[in-house]
Structure prediction request, 279 residues.
Amino acid sequence: MRVELLWWEGCSSFPETIAEVREALSEEGVDPDGLELREVETDEEAARERFPGSPTIRIDGEDVLPPAEDEPYALTCRVYRLRDGRFSPTPDPADVRAAIRRAKEKQ
Amino acid sequence: MTLAVGQEAADFTLPDTYGRGHSLPKGRPAVVVFTCNHCPYALAWHDRIVDVARDYEDVSFFAINPNDAERYPADSAEAMRERVERDGGWPLPYLRDESQEVARAYGARTTPHVFVVDAERTVRYAGAPDADYRDPGQNAAWLRAALDAVLAGEDPERAETEPVGCSVKWRQ
Prediction:
């Protein structure tokens, strides 16, 4: 399983996202040290990486919470909704765990 | 550099989502919040700030969006108007700082970045609305405490805090 976390330094949420993804991986029995961290630094990189904002978490190439199809690629902070409806700069850890489980089932 | 507590707040006249101009009042406390549409921190704190605006009738409130709308179209004047209309109106005007001069005058660093200004236009609080964007129960406690102090003619116990949010998107 390939787990990537793409981040941009203009959004301060990446340290807590790294911790939450590593914790989710551990809880689901996946080596947290395998998490790949990739910084996106320019608009050109954002377009090339199809980066809708920071943080973006992909498992085997699939976004754990796919953005809308018309979401632009940009250096920006991504807006997530927690399961209780609140806005958040980081995804709900339950959604990350669910994505990990789905990826495991495909293996 | 961010306006420090004790410094004079910069005056402004900016258009709201209907094109009406709004200025910093004289003789009345005010809250100036730099905010925007696209930032998750600003969105997470938005309802708490709106609640404060509803609760403090003797204070003028202004939400100011200074972000570069060319690179961040979600922060355009049109998108701002659509958001206010979608919400059924806000209890505070949502102002567009197209030139970014007001944001520069205040030294706004993030969205949100909150400034409390007293009736003499002196900055009395600058920083975050409260300690945790994730916890609605915080209820913008730092902002409320600063307002309570200013309205009582006292110095806020916590006058400056670290603003938390997305960086202001300056034109390049």
Observations:
- Strands of chain B lie at 13-15, 21-23, 30-34, 60-65, 94-96, 110-111, 113-117, 123-127, 166-167.
